[in-house]
Write a structure and sequence with these properties.
The structure holds two protein chains of two kinds. Chain A starts with a strand and ends with a strand. Chain A is α/β, with parallel strands linked by helices. Chain A is built from 13 helices and 22 strands. In chain A, 42% of the residues are buried. A seven-stranded mixed sheet of chain A has the order 3-1-4-11-6-14-9, sandwiched between helices. A seven-stranded mixed sheet of chain A has the order 18-17-16-19-20-22-21. Chain A has a three-stranded antiparallel sheet with strand order 8-7-10. By secondary structure, chain B is an alpha/beta fold. Chain B contains seven helices and 13 strands. Chain B is globular and about 55 Å long. Chain B starts with a strand and ends with a helix. Classes of the chains: A alpha/beta, B alpha/beta. At the A-B interface, β2, α1 and β3 of A face β2 and α1 of B.
Chain lengths: 430, 229
């Protein structure tokens, strides 16, 4: 069998990737395959991939393995991947590697129209995907040849999306694969070890996400974008400073803690920075965990400015999504966002909430319990609100310097009728 | 045809020039057709430690020959494979290809001959293989016999960065002392990528000290004109 390895390169390659590639060559040679490596150093990745497509189809290879110059993996993983894909006789198979910007989700995506929904968690076995990056893709050359001629020698194209953003050349190819009736698979066992270069393109997307959040807050407060940026960047310190000014080194009572959070507008900026910065990897993982459970009713306990609720709305269409918080400022802003973006989430502030029993399938409690004087009281209430076997997705940040608001570092959730399933997932035992 | 095990030893850094990587990835196929089974060894510790580490690790697999490659070399894989084959057929214990230093403006070859008490750059050479006294380690074939002998005699410290001479020169010095000869193969010409400010500044400072500023300016101007032509 003839196997082509196609690599778009620039001036430098990751040494780890080169070592991986030597392993790939060796593995294929040991299987008595005819292997040839094709490089192309054209600066534009679309042109580079199109030229490589021509070369590998001209060589009449049977399979082509696309690999990017910044991913690296073990020879053993590749061998297993290659053998399985050949055995499964699939047209298109990708390995899995993280995107290079926070929240570092895998570069494989659901098929969801123009957008891209990341798999933050995924099954152990090969699963069907809608899109993927081309960091490590094995495909039949027959598929490539078909698309190469069908798309006038340009199966890889950069395309401007309707929202003004750019779609990568690999996504265009994936769309073509889908539109022509081929299926794409992800083999999660083939996990890249490294993908550690951040490009300006990635940085721009990261910045765009943050800008959208900042623009919302700017419109809500009437402050300029610059003012919002400036305040957001120090918001965490502002909250900590306010706490110290209010309580000094004394230990506040439960009523005092509640009173503090009921009127703390600084959290508007702190949470905007936190969610807009894309650093909330655990939250994205939690959303993905919750989504797979197909919940009918979801509560975000301590919903802040609402992003987790909005994400759940998108992830689980039709589900009832509730948010609860005691902070009047953040809740007002959340209500404003619900109206502006036409979200369906219901938000309850303080006494508005009726603590319904056996109602929710999933409750989020992310970065909330550590702020409470008696967190276990609330864990018990959460337990009552969950259906039997329901899920609590909780993250409890540790007590640390600079975060005096974290007054409860160790919260034994399992002592309140929960069984821990993994890092942040608890099942309600009833 | 008997297959010889060839240990390819490469000190590396985080990144690799694509030109080198492309040459490297082309090498195994050409070596195999010439009767060699390549085994790659990489090490990313500082260069003098790196070579000693590589020697130690590679020796453990008892290769027949070693090919030392630097990650700033640029080469045609078939030519390197030919060079390895030829050097081994000629029964050379140490053999080098020819490439040039990166120091501007004197792009001298990295092969040297001892003349009296001084070690001089080889400025011109014949078309045939010729003996030298020192060489850079950008692309060097070393026999297992030479490696083993030196490894034992030097207790593993084959490449000693003394501060007076580079670790590659130290290897050559000791090799000559232990009776091994070093041969240059003009048939293998390699590119040598990358120039650092350290090289440039050091060269300039050395020459300033030697010749005085005005002379240096003049020399560099002349060299630049040659390059421009």
């Amino acid at each position: 069998m003839k196997v082509a390895i196609a690599i778009p390169v620039l001036k430098l390659m990751h040494t780890r990737m080169v070592i991986s590639l030597l392993g790939v060559q060796k593995a294929l040679k040991e299987r008595n395959h005819d292997v040839r490596v094709f490089f192309n150093a054209t600066a534009q990745h679309d042109a580079s991939r199109n030229q490589l497509s021509k070369e590998v189809t001209d060589w009449e290879s049977d399979y082509v393995f696309w690999i990017d110059a910044d991913v690296a993996f073990s020879q053993e993983k590749f061998e297993h991947f290659f053998d399985t894909v050949i055995k499964d006789d699939v047209d298109f198979a990708s390995g899995i590697y993280p995107i290079r910007y926070p929240p570092f989700a895998p570069a494989v995506f659901l098929h969801d129209g123009e957008g891209r929904t990341e798999f933050v968690t995924y099954p152990d076995k090969p699963f069907e995907i809608g899109r993927c990056g081309f960091g490590m893709v094995l495909m039949k050359t027959g598929l490539l040849r078909t698309l190469y001629y069908l798309y006038d020698h340009m199966p890889f194209q950069f395309v401007k999306k309707s929202n003004g953003g750019m779609e990568g050349e690999d996504f265009f190819f994936c769309r073509a694969v889908n539109e022509n009736g081929y299926k794409m698979w992800c083999y999660p066992d083939f996990l890249a070890d490294y993908h550690d270069e951040v490009t300006p393109w990635h940085m721009r997307k990261y910045q765009e996400d943050r800008l959208k959040m900042v623009a919302d807050l700017s419109e809500f407060t009437g402050q300029s974008i610059a003012q919002i940026y400036a305040t957001c960047s120090i918001a965490s310190d502002l909250v900590a400073g306010k706490w110290k000014a209010t309580f000094g080194d004394t230990t506040p009572t439960e009523e005092q803690v509640d009173a503090f959070y009921k009127n703390c507008p600084e959290y508007l900026y702190d949470l905007t920075w936190f969610w807009g910065g894309g650093t909330c990897r655990t939250k994205n993982a939690a959303i993905e965990q919750a989504k797979w459970k197909e919940p009918k009713a979801v509560l975000d306990f301590g919903c802040g400015i609402g992003d987790l609720c909005f994400a759940m709305e998108k992830a689980c269409p039709g589900a009832t999504v509730h948010g609860y918080d005691i902070n009047a400022a953040t809740s007002d802003y959340m209500k404003w966002r619900i109206a502006k973006h036409d979200y369906k989430t219901q938000v309850f502030v303080g006494g508005e909430f009726h603590w319904p029993e056996n109602f929710y399938d999933v409750i989020f409690c992310m970065d909330v319990l550590e702020h409470m004087k008696n967190p276990l009281d609330y864990v018990r209430k959460i337990h009552k609100m969950l259906k039997p076997g329901g899920t609590l997705l909780a993250e409890v940040s540790p007590m640390k310097a600079g975060q005096p608001m974290h007054i409860s570092g160790n919260v034994d959730i399992c002592s309140c009728g929960f069984r821990r399933k993994n890092e942040n997932e608890y099942e309600a035992m009833k | 045809m008997m297959t010889l095990k060839l240990a390819i030893c490469i000190p590396i850094r985080e990144r690799m020039l694509s030109r080198f990587a492309i040459g490297l990835l082309g090498l195994p196929a050409h070596l195999r057709t010439r009767g060699f089974e390549p085994v790659f060894y990489f090490d990313n510790t500082p260069f003098y430690e790196s070579r000693n580490n590589l020697a130690k690790t590679a020796r453990a697999s008892t290769p027949d020959y070693y090919l030392w490659l630097d990650d700033d070399m640029q080469f045609v894989p078939a030519e390197v494979a030919d060079f390895v084959k030829q050097a081994i057929e000629d029964k050379r214990d140490i053999a080098t290809g020819i490439y040039f230093k990166r120091r501007f403006p004197d792009y001298g070859a990295t092969i040297f001959k001892q003349e009296g008490n001084s070690m001089n750059e080889v400025l011109s050479w014949p078309d045939e293989v010729f003996e030298v006294d020192r060489c850079g380690f950008g692309c060097v074939v070393v026999s297992a016999k030479a490696m083993d002998t030196m490894y034992d005699k030097l207790s593993g410290n084959l490449f000693n960065f003394t501060g007076i001479m580079g670790e590659d020169f130290y290897f050559c010095l000791r090799a000559k002392q232990y009776g091994f000869s070093i041969w240059a193969y003009p048939s293998l010409k390699l590119g040598h990528d990358g120039i650092t400010f350290w090289h440039f500044e050091k060269y300039r400072n050395d020459r300033i000290a030697e010749m005085g500023l005005e002379l240096v300016k003049d020399a560099m101007l002349t060299a630049q004109k040659k390059v421009d032509k």
